[in-house]
């Protein structure tokens, strides 16, 4: 018999051996994972160990064979009934696209038998090409109070254009004709007591006929970037004629990472008048102006810079003169505070060729006896600030100083007296052109209130101070000009707009070559306001009617000396948009 202590030790040892065998019988891949958090690694000491000092003797009468135990896990898949919902992007409510029409027609009629007619039609030739046709007529049968001569006018024009927008090439071609009729009705006060036969002998009617053709071309990935070319003709009822050709190509080069642009400006003008105002000879003029304008443009997110110059040669064929001009070309702008504040400035100059066509567009009462020559703007230095005062208020302020040689000024032709043999323009009722050297200091300010798509308001003003060299006054140039304009939508159906123009005092010259009236007198034209407004109603997307009012203050002011304008004018009309 084994003693009790040895028995206990054998029992403990047997339990350990059985546990080890049991653990060994487990399949490794069937054990679960267990997370053990070890607070402190085990560090055994000598006192924790014991040594078996004697080996027990095995004296069992029977040795039992241990049975082998095999374990297996029967895995059963479990079907899940959970189905995750598919993600769906939040939809944005789309605005209904605005229906655009290719054609429209407008017609209006008002007092003074004023007529307005417009028509435009666009034809889509292909996906890239379009052809358009435009017609406009504006006329009045006159009726200005206290006017001794017929004051009717009409202006009719017809234009066509063809455009093509392709991948690397865009071009458009347009051509048109225009017919205008005006009357030199601005007789001075001396005619208030003139005999009826003198008044009836004045044929004040004057008509212009003009035509033009022009085109533009833009190319990608080419040294030739873009260019324009035009040819125009003007004739009148006094056998005057004028022919003008303009060509302006632009090229771009990249020389050692230095982007260089070169513009070319060619302007050829030739014309004649049957007589001068003194009836001593005819007038002929012919100019060829050619210029080259190289420039370097640089820009970053906040800075924009352009540096260059313009060099011109001007050939006066009739007087066999050749003149050379060089002008600065420098502009810079810098954004100081995002969209809130931007500073800009520069200095510029150019050679501008005056023409009979340009003069009659600005003042249709010029006589067919003009002296034509170019104007040289030696420089125009300017600096300003622009940006936004808030999200809806924009501003722009600018100051400038310019110097011009041979600036063109309108001035009344001298009075020849009352004679039945006078031409319609020889009664002191037409305008000539004089040239003078000018220095001008100008200040400009503008505020824009872009509140929403339903309301827009703008106001601007300009103050000019002139210093001239030869003439007594800067004829017909106002010191102050201001404009207020607005557009608004009252409802989806009602819309409208208004404008108010202010022009300050101007000076003109009365002169005469007869008797005691041979001296001259400076006359002052009063400043004036011209208020205009319109309101329209849309019946649907295609049809709308409108009411327009012009010169609402009813002032018969004089835009040019002795030329009163019509009083309050009203017009009722309709517009219709459609597709063929």
Q: Which structural class best describes the helix and strand composition? A: mainly beta
Strand content: over 45%
What's the helix count? 3
Mean pLDDT: 87
DSSP helix fraction: under 10%
Secondary-structure element sequence?
HEEEEEHEEEEEEEEHEEEEEEEEEEEEE
Q: Looking at the structure, what is the overall shape? A: globular
Give the biggest beta sheet: 22 strands, antiparallel, barrel
Q: What's the gyration radius in Å?
A: 45 Å
Number of strands: 26
Low-confidence stretches: 9-40, 46-50
What is the straight-line distance between the termini? 125 Å
Task: Give structural notes.
- The chain is mostly beta strands and 580 residues long.
- Helices cover 6% and strands 54% of the residues.
- It is built from three helices and 26 strands.
- The chain has helices at 4-24, 196-201, 356-362; strands at 103-110, 114-124, 129-140, 153-165, 169-183, 205-219, 224-236, 241-254, 259-273, 283-299, 303-316, 321-337, 341-352, 375-388, 393-412, 431-452, 455-468, 480-489, 494-503, 506-511, 520-525, 528-538, 543-550, 558-560, 563-564, 569-578.
- The strands form three sheets. It has a 22-stranded antiparallel beta barrel.
- A hairpin with a 3-residue loop joins β12 and β13 (341-352).
- The chain is globular, with a radius of gyration of 45 Å.
């Amino acid at each position: 018999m084994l003693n009790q202590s040895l028995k206990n030790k054998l029992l403990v040892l047997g339990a350990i051996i059985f546990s080890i065998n049991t653990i060994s019988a487990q399949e490794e891949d069937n054990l679960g994972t267990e997370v053990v958090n070890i607070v402190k690694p085990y560090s055994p000491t000598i006192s924790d160990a014991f040594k078996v000092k004697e080996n027990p003797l095995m004296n069992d009468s029977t040795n039992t064979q241990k049975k082998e135990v095999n374990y297996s896990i029967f895995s059963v898949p479990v079907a899940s009934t959970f189905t995750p919902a598919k993600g769906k992007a939040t939809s944005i409510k789309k605005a209904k696209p605005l229906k655009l029409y290719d054609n429209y027609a407008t017609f209006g009629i008002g007092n003074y038998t004023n007529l307005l007619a417009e028509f435009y039609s666009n034809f889509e030739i292909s996906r890239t090409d379009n052809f358009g046709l435009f017609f406009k007529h504006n006329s009045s049968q006159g009726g200005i109070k206290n006017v001794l001569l017929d004051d009717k006018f009409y202006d009719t024009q017809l234009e066509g254009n063809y455009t093509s927008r392709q991948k690397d090439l865009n071009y458009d071609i347009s051509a048109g004709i225009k017919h205008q009729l005006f009357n030199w009705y601005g007789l001075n006060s001396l005619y208030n007591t003139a005999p009826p036969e003198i008044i009836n002998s004045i044929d004040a009617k004057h008509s212009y006929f003009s035509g033009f053709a022009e085109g533009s071309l833009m190319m990608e990935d080419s040294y030739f970037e873009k260019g324009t070319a035009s040819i125009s003709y003007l004739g009148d009822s006094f056998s005057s004629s004028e022919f003008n050709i303009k060509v302006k190509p632009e090229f771009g080069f990249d020389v050692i990472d230095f982007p260089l642009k070169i513009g070319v400006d060619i302007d050829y003008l030739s014309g004649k008048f049957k007589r001068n105002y003194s009836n001593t000879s005819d007038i002929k003029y012919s100019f060829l102006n050619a210029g080259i304008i190289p420039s370097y443009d640089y820009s970053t997110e906040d800075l924009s810079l352009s540096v260059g110059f313009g060099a011109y040669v001007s050939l006066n064929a009739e007087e066999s003169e050749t003149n050379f001009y060089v002008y600065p070309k420098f502009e810079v702008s810098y954004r100081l505070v995002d969209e809130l504040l931007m500073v800009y400035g520069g200095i510029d100059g150019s050679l501008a060729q005056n023409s009979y066509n340009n003069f009659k567009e600005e003042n249709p009462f010029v006589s067919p006896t003009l002296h034509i020559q170019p104007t040289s703007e030696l420089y125009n230095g300017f600096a300003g600030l622009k940006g936004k005062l808030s999200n809806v208020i924009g501003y722009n302020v600018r100051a400038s100083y310019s110097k011009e040689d041979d600036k063109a000024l309108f001035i009344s032709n001298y009075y020849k007296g009352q004679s039945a043999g006078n031409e319609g323009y020889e009664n002191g009722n037409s305008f000539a052109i004089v040239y003078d050297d000018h220095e001008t200091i100008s200040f400009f300010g503008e505020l824009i209130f872009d509140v929403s798509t339903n309301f827009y308001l703008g106001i601007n003003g300009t103050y000019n101070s002139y210093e001239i060299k030869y003439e007594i006054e800067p004829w017909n140039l106002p010191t102050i000009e201001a404009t207020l304009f607005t557009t608004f939508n009252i409802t989806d159906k009602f819309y409208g707009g208004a404008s108010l123009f202010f022009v300050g005092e101007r000076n003109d010259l009365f002169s005469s070559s007869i008797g005691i009236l041979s001296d001259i007198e400076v006359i002052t034209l009063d400043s004036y306001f011209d208020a205009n407004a319109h309101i329209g109603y849309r019946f649907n997307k295609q049809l709308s009617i409108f009411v327009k009012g012009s010169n609402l203050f009813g002032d018969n002011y004089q835009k040019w000396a002795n030329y009163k304008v019509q009083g309050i004018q009203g017009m009722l009309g309709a517009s219709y948009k459609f597709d063929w």
